[in-house]
Amino acid sequence: MKKQTTFITSLILSLSLSSFAQDNDSTVIRKFFNESLSNGKSYEWLRDLTSNVGPRLSGSEGAKKAVQWGKTLLESGGYDRVFLQDVMVPHWVRGAKEEGYILDGKQKIKVPLVALGGSIATPKKGITAEVIEVKTFQELRALGKEKCEGKIIFFNRPMDPTKINTFEAYGQAGDQRRSGANEASKLGAIGVIIRSLSSTENDFPHTGSMVYATGVPLIPAAALSTNAATLLSKTLKENPNTKFYFKQSCETLPDAPSHNVVAEIKGSEHPEEIIVVGGHLDSWDLAQGAHDDGTGIVQSMEVARLFKNLGIKPRHTIRIVLFMNEENGNRGGVKYAELAKQNNEKHIFALESDNGGFTPRGFGMQGASAELLAKVQSYRTLLAPYGLHEIERGGGGVDIGPLAPQGTVLIGFKPDAQRYFEYHHASNDTFDTVNQRELEMGAASMASLIYLLDNLK
C-alpha cells in the first residue's frame, strides 16, 4: 500500500509539473504575440529596407548598403555580439532594359521579358528566329537537332495549378529555367525563352537563376510574363512560322566581396550550442525584394528583439544570421557552414524564413529523429491558438541547408503559400504587398518555436 501511495503521489507531482510547464510556456508564447502585434518593429524595418536600400542583388551597391543596414540595426539591439563574415559572391548585372517582340507576319507585338540571372547577353542587335514551343526536355529531345538548329526554343510549361502546395508546383516547373538553355543549346538552338514560374496570369515576368553546363555552347535565356507566354503560344498555333526577337545586355563580372551579418545572444546554460534563425539579405534586382526575402530578414531580427525586450534569457546561444547570396549561388550559406565546422561550433537547430510574409501556418522539419519530431508535434496544443497547425517533415531552407551534414536539424517557417508566386522574383515584389499583421504574426510564431526548442527536455 505504501508503494502504491508513493507511486500515485509521484504521478500527481509529475503531472502537476508538466501542467505548470505548459502553463508557463503558454504565457511566454502569449507575450511574444502580444509584444509583436502591439509594438513590433518588423514592418517598419521592412519599410526602411525596401524603400531606402531597395534591390540588393549580390555584388551590387544595394547589397553593400544592405549589409551596413543590417549591421547597424543589429548593433542598436544591444546583443552580446554583432559581426560580419566575409564571403566572395557572384556579380551578375542586368544592364539595359530587355526588349522582346512577337513577329507575326507584318505584326510586331511588344511583350514583357527579362533576362534570367546568370545568362549571357544577346548580340548587340538582338536575335531573331523562328520559335519552337515545347513543354518538357523529353519533347525537345524528340524533335532532334534538325528541327531545333538556329531556332529559339520556347519552354511553355506552367506551374501545375492543381497542386495545393505551390512550392511543389514551382519545383516541378523549375528545370526549364535552370537548365533549359543547356538542353536547347545541345540541339543547336540560338536562344531560349521560358514561361515565367508564376501561379498567376499577369504581365510581370519573373527572373531567377540559370546555370550553364560545362562544354555546352552558351546561349541567352530570358523569361516571358505568363500573359505573354499564353499569347505567343496562341500565335504559334495560328501561325507556326511566327518569329521572336529579343535583346538583352547582361554580363557576369568578377566575384565581389560581401558579408553575412550575424548577431548573437549568448546562452545562459549551453552557450556552446547554437540555434540559428535567419533569412537571406540579397534579392533580385527587379524590385524591392519585400517577400523574397525582406520579410524573412526582419522577422528573424524581430525574434532577437522579442527575447531581449521581454527579458527571456535563452539556455542555448541564439544567432540571427542575414545570409548573403541565396538567390544566385548560396555562397553565404556555404561560407557560414564552412566557418561553423572550422570553429568546431555545434549547431543544434537552424530555422529559416524564406517563403514570404503571409499568414503563418506552421513549420517543416528536416533531419529530425522520429522521437524529436513527435516531441515538437506535441507543441501543437500551444501553437494551434495562433493558427500554427502544420508541424511535419519538410524542407528547411537554401541558406541553412549546408549545415545539414553537421547534424543540424533544419526547420523551414511555413506561411500560407497561395500568393507567394505572384511576386517571387518579379518587379511587383514590393513593400505594399506585405500585410503588417501577417508579418508580425510570423515573427512571433518563429520566436515561439525557438523558445520551445531552447527549453526542449
Automatic annotation (TrEMBL):
Q: Record's InterPro entries?
A: CPQ, Peptidase_M28
The subcellular location is: Endoplasmic reticulum; Golgi apparatus; Lysosome; Secreted
SUPFAM superfamilies on file: Zn-dependent exopeptidases (SSF53187)
Domain Peptidase M28 residue range list: 260-445
What residue range is the signal peptide?
A: 1-21
Sorted alphabetically, the keyword list is:
Carboxypeptidase, Endoplasmic reticulum, Glycoprotein, Golgi apparatus, Hydrolase, Lysosome, Metal-binding, Metalloprotease, Protease, Secreted, Signal, Zinc, Zymogen
Lineage, top-rank taxon, reads Bacteria
What Pfam families is this protein classified in?
A: Peptidase_M28
Predominant location category: endoplasmic reticulum
Oligomeric form and interacting partners: Homodimer. The monomeric form is inactive while the homodimer is active.
Q: What name does this protein carry?
A: Carboxypeptidase Q
Organism from which the protein derives: Arcicella gelida
